[in-house]
Structure formats: structure tokens, C-alpha cells
């Protein structure tokens, strides 16, 4: 399997459990790794046969800003399901970082790996 990835996709959204977190947008940064077979796209030079990382990025941004949740855990599970169902990938690893969550830490976050069944 081959890997298509997106690194440090920045999305501003409302997320968090505490009331103060629901008052203003926070920065989230996504790292996404998607396993797929790129051979057909590589041989044909056809974007329609590739995992279009621009479309994946847009889908992540739209969902993250349009469907507010409180937990990063909920968000990454939702995004993994979307990517596996809407794009030609067999496995996805999603890591989301929330830099403003813990003042003493550079960033905190959640990472999951899910496989298409």
C-alpha cells in the first residue's frame, strides 16, 4: 500500500467542554495519513484516480467547522469514518493537535488509526 498524507492542516473552530472554550474559535492542526494504491493514478496521470488531498482537506475543514463537538475524540472518529467512506482509502491515521488546551504544553491531542471493513 501507498500513503497519501496531509500535514498540519489548520482549522479554526469552536471545540471544547468548558464554557470559555465555546466562546471563541481555537486552532486545530490535523495530520492525516491515508493508505491507498496509487498505481492507476500514477500510470494514467489522472487526478480522478488519485486521492485528492485538496478535497480531503476541504472535507475535514467543512465538517470540523460545521458540526461542533466537545471532544477531540468524537471529532477524529467522525472524520475517520468520513474519509474511509468517501475516499478510495483502506486505512486512515488521524492526529489532531490543540495547541491552546494546556498552557504548559506546546500542544495536546488525539491520534487514531482506522481500517475500512
The largest pleated sheet is described as: 4 strands, antiparallel
- Total strands: the figure is 4
Stretches where pLDDT falls below 50 for ≥5 residues? none
* Nearest-integer average pLDDT: 95
Dominant shape: elongated
- How far the N terminus sits from the C terminus, by CA atoms, comes to 16 Å
Proportion of beta-strand residues: 25-35%
Radius of gyration, CA atoms, in whole angstroms = 15 Å
Order of strands in the sheet with most strands: 1-2-3-4
Oligomeric state of the chains present here: single chain
Provide the fold topology.
Blueprint lengths: L1 E12 L12 E11 L2 H6 L8 H14 L5 H15 L4 E7 L11 E7 L2
Antiparallel strand pairs: 1-2, 2-3, 3-4
Helix pairs in contact: 2-3
Task: Give an overview of the whole structure.
This protein is an alpha+beta fold. It is 30% helix and 32% strand. The chain has a 4-stranded antiparallel β-sheet, covered by helices on one side. The radius of gyration is 15 Å and the shape is elongated.
Short note summarizing the structure:
It is built from three helices and four strands; from the N terminus they run E-E-H-H-H-E-E. With 117 residues, the protein is of the alpha+beta class.
What tags apply to this protein structure?
117 residues, alpha+beta, 32% strand
